[in-house]
Amino acid sequence: MSKVAFVGVGRMGANMARHLQLDCGHDVTAVFDVNKEASAEIAGELGAKDCGTLAEVTAAAEIIFTVVTNDDAMRAIFLGEGDNLLTGSEGKTFVNCATLSPGIHKEVYAAGKKTGAEVLEGAMASSISQAREGKLFLMIGGDESVFDAHKKILEELSVNLSLCGPIGKAAEVKALVNMVMNINTAGLAEGLGLADALGLDLKMVCDIFSQTGANSRVLETDAEDMIDRDHECWFSAEHAAKDSGIAGDLAKELGLELPVNEATKSQYDEMVSSGLGDLDKSGIAELTFKGRGPAADSGC
User: Fold this and answer.
1) What pLDDT, in 10s, does the model give residues 224-277?
2) Same structural domain for residues 17 and 162?
């Protein structure tokens, strides 16, 4: 069994840590989070060290998982001046699980090579309950030999494990996954909003959607929440805006235009600017149903 540490112990990171220790027998030795209340809670639960520095995290474990919010946070924990995870990192392996740009993953990979550390992407296409149960859909990017060496622990976290290619490729695939998911969510919100304005029975509409070309995974997960205005946060509108932006940036680098993605991103950007960024992505329905708007309650 491995000595494991986590940087970023919000609901996803904390549940991954719980699964690896409580269900799989690994030793979660250390945690770190800028939210010290969150890190203290999971450290106390698992008997891990609540580290005050990033270098302490690296020293305490063989495999370090990171689950951070954005490129800037990733750059800070690996490339920040003074204290960072690459201090004393020779022989350590980092698995970086957040949805970030391919570029930052490549930066960290290159920096890790210089210190003798191994770096993998572990992009996740799942939610909080799947993290606790070890049923994530993990997309891995990095060296195949490193993937093979750590395949067992990755399989323990995942019900579906895919090696997407060299470093950066998992981030590209994840950007596509979230781009299409966000577009589907926005389309469903518009369809249900229009159906509601037309006075149609929304349960009937959803039933017909489910048996026709309007069907989607988002219909299963978000339709009821859109109708009931229950936007408890599983995947926030702020993260949706960020991820659609990553896809848009990739397209611009290639000289492609993605007008549907841009329209979807503008809707999520409007949610963020209206103070609704902490709502679940289903909260986009607050922009498409008549009589709704920024007055909706926050759910995260």
Assistant:
1) 999 999 999 988 999 999 999 999 999 999 999 999 999 999 999 999 999 999
2) yes
User: How far apart are the C-alpha atoms of 258 and 99, rounded to whole Å?
Assistant: 20
Dist CA 189 CA 65 (whole Å)? 35
Q: Is the same domain home to 188 and 159?
A: no
185 Cβ partners below 8 Å, 6+ apart? Answer: 218, 222, 240, 264, 281, 282, 284
Domain end point (choices 167, 198, 230): 167
pTM for this structure? 0.90
> How far apart are the C-alpha atoms of 112 and 148, rounded to whole Å?
18
Residue 80 CA to residue 222 CA, distance in Å, equals 39
Instruction: State which of 167, 199, 228 marks the end of a domain.
Output: 167
Long-range contacts of 130-133 (CB under 8 A, 24+ apart): 130/159, 131/11, 131/12, 131/15, 131/16, 131/19, 131/157, 132/15, 132/18, 132/19, 133/19
Domain that residue 98 falls in: 3-167
Q: What is the pLDDT of residues 64-88, one digit of tens each?
A: 999 998 999 999 999 999 999 999 9
Tokens of 238: 């702020």
Helix (H) and strand (E) counts for the chain? 13, 8
